[in-house]
């Protein structure tokens, strides 16, 4: 059993790296439900050295983790809401169930919502067995990093 835990720990660090999470970043989690990947959450909390902020927090945040499912409503409205507390160079990670999983979201639905919300899509990555991540940034911060 210990070997399994050790292997799981090694994978957790990888998720925080893939998401660009750095120590002491302020990370807010939106859309938590029973189906989220607790290993991903634990890896991020371990990396930042604190708990994730919940939906009620009004702090300025470096990263928003948005757990998003097909039945969650209007993505454009939600994206516009979560950009409010985002730092100027902050990012939003839209975390969606992978193909074939309950709640799967068509990539075209996300691609359509992103520019409408005034954002740009920059990266896609796997964030766990059941979840994929899409990195969104403000177009002005995407240009500044080029």
Describe the 3D structure.
It contains 5 helices and 5 strands; from the N terminus they run αβαβαβαββα. The radius of gyration is 15 Å and the shape is globular. Strand 4 (120-126) and strand 5 form a beta hairpin. The longest helix is centred in the first third of the chain and has 17 residues, at 2-18. Strands 1-2-3-5-4 form a 5-stranded mixed beta sheet. With 146 residues, it is α/β, with parallel strands linked by helices. It has helices spanning 2-18, 38-48, 75-83, 107-116, 139-144, and strands at residues 27-30, 61-67, 86-97, 120-126, 131-137. The chain starts with a helix and ends with a helix. Helix content is 36%, strand content 25%. Helix 1 (2-18) packs across helix 2 (38-48). InterPro entries: DUF3052. This is DUF3052 domain-containing protein. Pfam families: DUF3052.
